[in-house]
Structures are given as C-alpha cells and as structure tokens.
Amino acid sequence: MDRIDNSTSLDSTISYMEDTAHFMNYAQGSTIAAEDRERFRELISQICQNENALRMKGFRQHGSVSTYQHCIRVAWRSFCLNLQLHAGSDECALVRGAFLHDYYLYDWHNAENKGHATNHPCIAEQNAAIDFDLSDKERNIIAAHMWPLPLTRISTSREGWIVCLADKLCSLYETLFLR
C-alpha cells in the first residue's frame, strides 16, 4: 500500500515528497528554490517522525495513498501555494496544521466510522492537541479543513484557507490518479 519506506527515516519521507513534486508545482515550469525545500524539511521534521504520526502509514486514505502520504502531500502543497501566491502565511502554523489535518488515527473505511467526513476534523484536532503543543491557529486549520462540511466550521486564517484548498486538490489528484 505505501509507496514510501515504512522506516522512520526522515530522508525516506522527504524523498517521497520530492518524488511527487511534479504534481505539487503550482504552474507548468514552476520550481521551488532549494532553500525553500530545506525550510519545508526543517518544518515538517519537527512533527512527521512522531510515533502516532508514523501510525498514519498504516491507514489508507484515497486510492493507494496512505494517510501519512496524503498529509505530507497536503503540507507540501500548502507550503508551495503560500510561496507561489505570495500569501505571506505563518509557514510553521501552515505546515503543522496541514500535516496534522487528518490526524484522526483510524481506518475511516470501516463501517463503524459513519460520519467521518464531518467528524474527523474535530477528532484530528483533539488527537493532535494531545501529542503536540498547538496554537489556536493550528487548531482552527485542522478543525476547519473540510469546509464546507459543515458550513459553520469556517477557517479564521489565510493558512486555514490554503490548507482547505490544498487538501481538496490533493484529494482529487489521489482519488483520480493514484489508484
């Protein structure tokens, strides 16, 4: 199921992210500078090697993609969108919120997980708050990433809107092309 090495090495995680970079570029011919890639590595390395984060490698998300792979992809896509749109977002909150947006830690394909689409953001936010020291902005990014499901859970930051968009783009790509 996983396309990346199930070891705990950060290098295998980053290698996977870079292998999928062709999709991540905002426009044809767009590139991300080496120093930006390194900054992303530093930001993601602070959370992606957590024991519970690594458990996400065992859960299928969309098609053949694990939840861990999806979260790495959404974090990278969010980071790139921020750069390419010159949004000026808080990169730390953006990457952390993006990576933890699906930190629900269960297989949502099981029948007992009814209501997953609307319930998992709050479950992910609660789980992330146990394992990480989250800012209010990061909590909102996680809890509001499924907007418009529900309509009342709305992002309060540009970082949240970027993650919401990146999640939808990545989910569509994974569902259509990574089966």
Describe this structure in words.
The protein is mainly α and 179 residues long. It has one domain. The protein has nine helices and two strands. It has helices at residues 10-19, 21-24, 34-45, 51-55, 67-84, 91-100, 116-131, 136-144, 158-177, and strands at 60-62, 65-66. A hairpin with a 2-residue loop joins β1 (60-62) and β2. α5 crosses α9 (158-177) and α7 runs antiparallel to α8.
SSE-based structural type = mainly alpha
Counting DSSP H or I runs of 4 or more residues, the number of helices is 9
> Spans of 5+ residues with little confidence (pLDDT < 50)?
1-8, 24-29
Instruction: Report the mean per-residue pLDDT as an integer.
Output: 83
Q: Quaternary state, please?
A: single chain
Largest sheet: 2 strands, antiparallel
